[in-house]
Amino acid sequence: MGAAAREREIARLRGIERNLVWIRWLGVAFGLFQVWQLAGPGTPDYLVPISYQTVAALGVGNAIIAALSVRATTVEGLRRIGYAAFALDVAMVFANVWLGSYDRNSTSWTLAYVLPLEGAIRYQMRGAVWMIGVFSISETIREIYRTNIIAGLGFEISAVTYRVGLFAIIALIAGIMARNLQSERSAAESRADELDRMARREMAGKTEIQAFHDVVLAGIGSGTVEQTVASISSAMGKAFGWEAFAVGLIDEETNDVRLTGSYGPGRVIDHVMPAGRGIVGRAIGTGESQLVANTRSDPDYVEWSDHVRSEMTTPIFVENKIIGVVDVESRRPSHFTPDDVESLERLAGQIGLVVSNARLLAAQRAMVARLQELDTMKSDFVAVTSHELRTPLTAVQGFIRTLRRPDVRLSPGEMEEFLAIVDRQVERLSRLVEELLLTARIDAGTIDLQMDSVEVSEVLEETLSELGDGRTRVQLAIDPTLPRVVTDAQRLGQIARNLIENALKFSPDDRPVRVTVVRNGSSLQLDVADKGSGIADDEVAQIFDRFHQVGGSLRRRGQGLGLGLYIVRNLVDALNGTVAVRSTPGEGSVFSVSLPLVPAAARSSTA
After folding, report:
1. Beta strands in 128-270 (DSSP E)
2. Distance (Å, rounded) from C-alpha 357 to C-alpha 359?
3. Which pLDDT score, from 0 to 100, does residue 528 have?
């Protein structure tokens, strides 16, 4: 590990420990408050003293970790501190989870959710996966222990798998996000190291080409690659007194040479020389410099100007790859010598370095922008997901606590209403988890399709039956002549449900949502129209992006993670269809999905 990389790693590790120290102090304060509330009827005598001891241990350990992390000056030392700190957090969290085992309905196990997040922050995916294993073992043993201390409680494997399953989902999501962010960070650091190495090589290489180098460096601050090359061309032409000087870069897709910078008459910026043509094409094809004493006698010469009589051309190499050419022309025959060609080759080497640097800088800027975008996405995702998961969990917890209160007597009707609310919130949680899992499969490219001949009306009726009260607002119109469609019924239902729920969410409660299904040639067309506020023109291109919500995450107008339309787009793509949106602000939106009645593979097999 180089010195720069070591310093970056030390800063990263110290930053992790510093942030977690503050979080632990909040945990100490929260723990003291929770222990203060423990005392009361039904609380075991041992619980309060032990709880105070665990909080005190966390506080003392945190103080020691804070002091050691400030004094540590090596990567190895900070890593050892990290191991100890993580072990402390694991011990304290599991201690609190186990202390809640006396309560039949205790939710203290949810505190363990912080461990996979910390494991992912510290050790990426392996930290999250390791915590899944530890939590699974702990919950299995704890369930056995609870059956022995709580009268009438038997071992419930479903309860263990439920807790472990939720824990595993959160752990894997955290691990995936941490791994992706680590990959992006490593790539950015590699770019920075490469730029640093190239800068050192340039400084060491200032010998006989010092004059060339100084002029070339004048173009580095010009901005884009094209601006840099244009600046160099003008400077070099003037410095060496050449009549015509040009730099052309190779288009990586077409292999044509595009004139990027020039000095002197007869050359037009962005002019394209087809691949393989002229003396320029010969230089690229052979990888060798070309010296032409008389252009009139060279069969490959492509005339730029009637006045050109001699020419020299040399390829620009970057890491043994030709990226362009440098071309110089004169009105006098035999004007250039082999020494001039050698000077041009050295100049081409310097130009190659500058172009490479400019491209690396452009890539670095794009990387920084991408990292900033990922950081924003991560923050939005954590905020939105935390809110969406916390809301139903809070509702479920509140109603269950009310049902368990001995001083509350509910009628059968009230109890049924409470249970119905709990059921709806659990269904909401299930939907959120289902969206996250489906998104993960989409990102991994593992969407399963079960193609079969289906009746579209049956699929849509079943979809509408899942909407609850929103069903009354949906107006369904299906072309009676519509034939059966060869598609995946489950995925078609998911597409329709997400579009309909989106329309219901973003339109007033007194406005209907119209769903129309017709045949359009060899395709099925599904339109979902609402009378909502519509979508602004600058947001239409983003609404199918992952985690995007109309108006931004800070001005969210409904529930959800912002994955519905992202899932729709990917499922439609998987079924070889298309999805489009037409929207008028203030009047509403229409989402149109077009799917083949029969996939191309099925048509070819029956032809």
Report:
1. 244-250, 257-263
2. 5
3. 92
